[in-house]
Write a sequence for this structure.
């Protein structure tokens, strides 16, 4: 039938194009420059739309920083508060004059702090996507911006057509090919006996497939300081924003991943890639046993031939405006820590996975219908635990280094706050401070009575 | 392409809320967005759990009591108007308030008396209008945790009740509470200013 013949021809042309223009260059780590051209066009379009916005809404010109993709203002908007804060310590807030015994009015301090937290707290906002300074022509980010002009609407419509009808099918095809190649390739390589040929082949397969997957997201990644790239026998530590982080890092070098065995598609991928190179997967029951986990990881890094381990110490996805508490478990293993900072540019697409709002499939669809994923990866110089430093302090030191490099704010809170309640230990600290004030100054009123 | 910034229409009964609480339009809108952000499952109201998720509130020794003040009389949900009414207690006093208020209108929510009432109900769990020694002890225990012994705490509670109690009934009524704090600058201690 002519219809099916035609469809078959289109499909085969399509696949040939994809093969020639994308797959083969990926295998050789070469870029044909198509994505660069796409990005240039995209940046020009967004700048143009920003100018149209400013032109039609002149009052914005004074408030917003002008032109292009303002990185600084994106940072600032994340930290502007809506209430006037009095950050004085507890002693001052509780009216420091007194010899300090309990007074009826002490309750004011805590209630004010409590209500301030209800009106605004620095943690909750980290679990929703970052707000943009200027609209990037995606409906999903259009929360603050009103109807501007007909020209902008037309550009937007064009954008929708391009994204959903041209980019989305291409990306889905690529992703599909990438994952299948990964599974098949690693299974094949896994058949070989252990040898340097096997490691070389497994690296090739991993690298190629990750590059294909990153292209399927139109990813543009800038690597900085490649001389500090994690070496074998080390532990690579990075801030976590989404599952894509793994692909982004693997495009530049292979890592041994650490994680829980999962079911479904993820499970298939996990089982396949562990055949080719030794990733560390734990059963759910094993994860609870911290000593077992530490022991296995120690064994892994002791073997100098094995790839560096990749760990995300935050434990959960944060929205890339801040870095939350690093769990100290990863820092108790010993060895050299290679910190890596990953910062996405939200103007082109939001990479943050809000797991309470979107499941994996809708998340991937959202990512594939954004313009692109643009990010910077900074490799930081290796760090080791110093004398007299415990794991928690070391974790904080590494966290600061990553936050400073990536331009992210640092928060002492646990990312697990997304799902559960905060630990009582923090509350006890406040109670301790308060008790010291009303009782700890030595004199109790019972004596003077 | 809708906008959210200037839509007071999003907020139900915006005008009467504004009059009742004294918040400006902009502040009300900010609080509305905050309400929506806290309402994680988009239920349209807040439950205790939603407020307990706030880290800074959960570590506050009086956190549970503060959450209680949003759920009077055993209710389990707080909708936006009630949310804002509680927060209105902490609105800074307007400068013109002092003499020009119409005495027939109900007292504004952020008056000195109402701020004191808010603080009073943090102590008075059973809502009987008096803070008994036992209730005083409970609040003290919340604020100090396990750091202070029972005897020390009891003596502190005893002393505090004695100092404030004028009619000798062994408990502190609201008027006695207000009197003992008459010199205190409540305004500064119990106000939260929302920036423009």
């Amino acid at each position: 039938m002519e219809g099916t013949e035609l469809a078959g021809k289109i499909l085969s042309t399509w696949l040939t194009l994809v093969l020639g223009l994308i797959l083969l260059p990926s295998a050789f780590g070469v870029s044909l420059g198509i994505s660069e051209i796409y990005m240039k066009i995209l940046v020009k379009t967004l700048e143009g739309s920003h100018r149209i916005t400013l032109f039609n809404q002149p009052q914005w010109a004074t408030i917003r920083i002008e032109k292009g993709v303002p990185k600084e203002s994106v940072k600032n908007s994340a930290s502007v508060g809506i209430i006037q804060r009095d950050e004085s310590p507890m002693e001052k807030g509780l009216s420091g004059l007194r010899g300090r015994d309990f007074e009826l009015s002490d309750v004011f301090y805590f209630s004010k702090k409590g209500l301030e937290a209800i009106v605004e707290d620095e943690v909750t906002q980290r679990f929703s996507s970052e707000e943009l300074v200027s609209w990037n022509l995606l409906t999903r980010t259009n929360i603050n911006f009103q109807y501007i002009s007909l020209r902008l609407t037309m550009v937007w419509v064009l954008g929708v057509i391009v994204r959903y009808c041209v980019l989305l099918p291409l990306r889905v095809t690529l992703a599909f090919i990438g994952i299948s190649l990964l599974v098949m390739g690693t299974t094949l390589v896994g058949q070989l006996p252990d040898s340097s040929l096997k490691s070389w082949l497994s690296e090739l397969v991993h690298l190629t497939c990750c590059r294909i997957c990153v292209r399927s997201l139109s990813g543009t990644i800038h690597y900085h300081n490649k001389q500090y790239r994690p070496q074998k026998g080390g532990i690579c530590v990075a801030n976590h924003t989404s599952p894509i982080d793994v692909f982004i890092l693997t495009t530049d070098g292979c890592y041994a991943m650490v994680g829980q065995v999962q079911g479904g598609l993820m499970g298939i991928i996990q089982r396949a890639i562990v055949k080719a190179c030794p990733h560390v997967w734990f059963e759910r029951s094993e994860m609870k046993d911290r000593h077992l986990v530490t022991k296995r990881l120690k064994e892994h890094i002791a073997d100098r031939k094995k790839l560096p381990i990749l760990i995300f110490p935050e434990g959960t996805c944060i929205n890339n405006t801040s870095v939350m508490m690093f769990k100290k478990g990863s820092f108790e293993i010993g060895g050299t820590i290679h910190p890596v900072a990953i910062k996405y540019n939200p103007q082109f697409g939001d990479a943050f996975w809000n797991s309470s709002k979107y499941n994996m499939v809708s998340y991937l669809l959202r990512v594939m219908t954004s313009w692109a994923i643009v990010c910077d990866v900074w490799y930081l110089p290796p760090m080791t635990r110093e004398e007299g430093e415990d794991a928690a302090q070391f974790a904080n030191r590494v966290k600061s280094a990553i936050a400073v490099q990536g331009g992210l704010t640092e928060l002492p809170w646990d990312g697990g706050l997304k799902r559960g309640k905060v630990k009582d230990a923090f509350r006890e600290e406040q109670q301790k401070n308060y008790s010291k004030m009303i009782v700890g100054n030595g004199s109790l009123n019972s004596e003077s009575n | 392409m809708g906008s959210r910034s200037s839509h007071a229409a999003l907020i139900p009964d915006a005008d009467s809320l504004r009059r009742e609480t004294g918040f400006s339009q902009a502040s009300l809108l900010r609080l509305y967005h905050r309400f929506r952000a806290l309402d994680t499952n988009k239920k349209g109201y807040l439950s205790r759990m939603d407020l307990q998720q706030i880290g800074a509130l959960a570590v506050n020794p009086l956190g549970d009591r503060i959450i209680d003040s949003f759920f009077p009389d055993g209710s389990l949900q707080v909708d936006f108007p009630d949310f804002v009414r509680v927060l209105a207690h902490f609105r800074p006093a307007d400068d013109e308030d002092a003499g020009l208020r119409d005495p027939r209108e109900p007292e504004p929510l952020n008056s000195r008396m109402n701020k004191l009432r808010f603080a009073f109900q943090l102590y008075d769990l059973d809502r009987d209008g008096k803070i008994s020694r036992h209730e005083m002890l409970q609040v003290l225990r919340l604020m100090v945790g396990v750091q202070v012994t029972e005897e020390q705490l009891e003596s502190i509670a005893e002393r505090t009740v004695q100092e404030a109690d004028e009619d000798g009934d062994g408990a502190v009524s609201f008027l006695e509470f207000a009197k003992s704090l008459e010199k205190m600058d409540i305004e500064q201690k119990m106000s939260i200013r929302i920036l423009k």
Q: What stands out?
A: Chain B touches chain A through 58 residues (CB under 8 Å). DSSP finds twelve helices and two strands in chain B. Chain B has a mean pLDDT of 81.
